[in-house]
Amino acid sequence: MLTFLQGLLRANEDPFRWAVYYGADAPDDAFAGYRLVVFDSDRHPDIEPVVARRGQALGYLSIGEVHRTRSYFTEVEREGLLVYENPNWPGAFAVDVRDPRWRRRVVDELVPSILARGFQGVFLDTADTAIDLERRDRTKFAGSTLATIELVKAIRNRNPGMPIILNRGYEILPAVETAIDMVLAESLVTDWDFQGKAPRMAPPGLHASQVELLSAARKRRPALRVLALEYWTPEDTATIRSIYGKVRALGFAPYVATVALDRVVPEPQ
Questions:
Q1: pLDDT tens digits for range 4-32
Q2: What is the pTM of this model?
Q3: I need a labelling partner for 217 at 20 to 30 A (CA). Which of 29, 186, 225, 261 fits?
């Protein structure tokens, strides 16, 4: 078994650098050195400079929730697909992924529109929302987890060579890991205190359980790349440097940012 230091040295031989940015004003050179960047699919910087540097730009797509700022929110609301508002993210509403109209909208409209803007692939967020709904009420939301699995597979079947990142969704990983290229562990070694509105280190038990699930997925599918998105105060460079080291020692690719993802936070050197 590798020691922490051995793992860190091996992970740093050729680190996979990536970033997430949901703003629109960052200069082109802010993304130099990143092999992959995730942008908001509606509001984002110019994609071409990223691609010109042989990087990949992926567009954000929420498959379990719809925010009222999205252009299709009113139509989804009118169709009666919204379930409840996310208390941690006001304005974001869980959607009933079991409804065929939602699946058609995602596969036939939303993904193609993202690709039409110049993105090479998609970042699938909020898969956990439907899973959580079924966990809360197995009668009312029965089949939500299976519907999420089928939705991810439908996206892949329609776009065979397109890069796909799945945010978390650990419970469905065994069923969809061959349909995605990367899985994102959001808050692997850190956590965000929504009440205190501040970052903190993740409880050891939560950290260990995520690592176990992700390591098992990679054992089943070695080609699966694991990304880790951590939140921390940008000015605390010492802690950020430590976070990068901890994540790379696990063999995963880290990026540390603000919780709003509205600024590019370079890795401390």
A1: 334 433 444 568 999 999 999 999 999 99
A2: 0.91
A3: 261
